[in-house]
DNA sequence: TAGCTATATAGCCATATGGATATATTCTCG
DNA sequence: CGAGAATATATCCATATGGCTATATAGCTA
C-alpha cells in the first residue's frame, strides 16, 4: 500500500501529468490529443503516460490505430482515503458533518 | 500554485515522510522523537523534515534546546481542494450529498 | 567557559527523473 | 504488400533525490 501511495503521489507531483489528468477528466483522449497542449516531444508525453498508468491513475484502450487513455478514478480514491485521517485538521465542519449525517434518517451513503 | 502542488505531492511521495506526518498528527515532536522509529541517520531525517517544511506541511518551533515540529494542515487542504475536481469520479454519493446538504435547513458549513 | 545535547549543514555517492533524438512497432488503407 | 499514421522503446544527458559520514552551530548546565 505504501508503494501504491508512493507511485500515486509522485505521479501527481508534476504539472504536466496533472494537466493530462485534467484533460482526461473531460473524457477519453489519444496520445496525440494529450500531447497537443504541451511544448514537449511525443516520447516525453508517452513517458508521462506510462508513469500515470503505472500509478493506476489512467488506463490504455485500443481503438483502431490509436491507444486512447481514460481516467482511472480508483487511484485518486486511494489517496483521498489516506488523507481522510488528516481531514479533521483543516476541515472544522468535518466532525460535525459526520456526526450530523449519522443522525439523519433516510440518508444512505451507498 | 502549480509549484505548491508539486512540492506538496512530491513531499508526500515518500513513506518516511508520510510516517512523520502520521506521528505529527498525534502532536508536536522533536527531531529525535521523529527519527526514533526509523533506521535512518539523523541528517537523513533532518533532510526529510526540510522537504516537508518547504512544502508547507510542517512548521518548526523553538523550545529550549530543541526545535519541535508541528503539523501544518493548510498544505493538505491545498491538495484536497485540487482533488475536489475529481471527487465526482469515485464518490458516487458526492453529488447526492452535496445536493442533500444544500436542502437541509439549519446546517451551516461555517 | 567547557562540555554535553539537539539539530543543521557540507560533501560525497548511487540511483531516479525528465527531456531530447533516433528508431522500432503496430495498425490501417490503397 | 507498401506507405503512412500513431505510439512505444532505446539511448543519452543533465539535474534531482535520498542516503551516509563528518563537521558545524546553538543552547543548556555545571
UniProtKB/TrEMBL annotation, chains A, B:
It comes from Rhizobium croatiense. InterPro entries: ArsR-like_HTH (IPR011991), HTH_ArsR_DNA-bd_dom (IPR001845), WH-like_DNA-bd_sf (IPR036388), WH_DNA-bd_sf (IPR036390). This is Metalloregulator ArsR/SmtB family transcription factor. SMART domains: HTH_ARSR. SUPFAM superfamilies: Winged helix' DNA-binding domain. Residues 1-91 form the HTH arsR-type domain. PROSITE patterns: HTH_ARSR_2. Gene3D superfamilies: Winged helix-like DNA-binding domain superfamily/Winged helix DNA-binding domain. It comes from the Bacteria. The lineage of its organism: Bacteria, Pseudomonadati, Pseudomonadota, Alphaproteobacteria, Hyphomicrobiales. CDD domains: HTH_ARSR.
Amino acid at each position: 500500500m505504501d508503494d501504491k501511495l508512493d507511485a500515486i503521489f509522485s505521479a501527481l507531483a508534476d504539472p504536466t501529468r496533472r494537466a493530462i489528468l485534467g484533460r482526461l477528466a473531460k473524457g477519453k483522449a489519444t496520445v496525440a490529443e494529450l500531447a497537443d497542449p504541451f511544448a514537449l516531444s511525443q516520447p516525453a508525453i508517452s513517458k508521462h503516460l506510462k508513469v500515470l498508468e503505472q500509478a493506476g491513475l489512467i488506463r490504455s484502450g485500443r481503438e483502431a490505430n490509436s491507444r486512447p487513455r481514460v481516467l482511472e478514478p480508483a487511484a485518486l480514491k486511494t489517496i483521498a482515503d489516506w488523507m481522510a485521517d488528516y481531514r479533521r485538521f483543516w476541515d472544522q465542519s468535518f466532525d460535525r458533518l459526520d456526526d450530523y449525517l449519522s443522525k439523519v434518517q433516510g440518508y444512505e451513503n451507498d
